[in-house]
Amino acid sequence: MQRVRLFHGTAFTCQLASKAVTHLCTRKCEGCNIVRMSFRLAYIGKNRRRTKWQRLGNGIYFSPHASKCHFYSGTGVRGMFLADVVLGRSYKPSTMELERLCPPPGYHSSYGEAGKCGLNYDEYAVFDEVACLPLLLYVYSYTSTTE
To answer: What is the CATH number of domain 3-142?
Structure first.
């Protein structure tokens, strides 16, 4: 099985990413939920603008490019995960597949190549929670943006 380290950007609605706190929040904070429970399929489907736009289907998304994940990491002080991801055999769709719930038989993940499926960056979607494990949480500040 192919195992790689990829980035995953998500928002933190609490103070964990912006202050040196030592506990996770109890609210519905995407970032704290990943720290607390790892990546969960039950929480997928909404990007930071709260609209569904998953070109490879209903999976958990990762990219080898931190700049891609930066877009999903909130505003101001941000959080981004580095994760171990087992991709297995990756399906490579030629068009967007917004409603895909799992890869085709014989595949374990989906791979969106930059320039195809409306993507500017390479990205992967996995459809099994045990295929991904958060390793590190990067917390950083970025205030000058034209997103």
So the answer is: 3.90.228.10
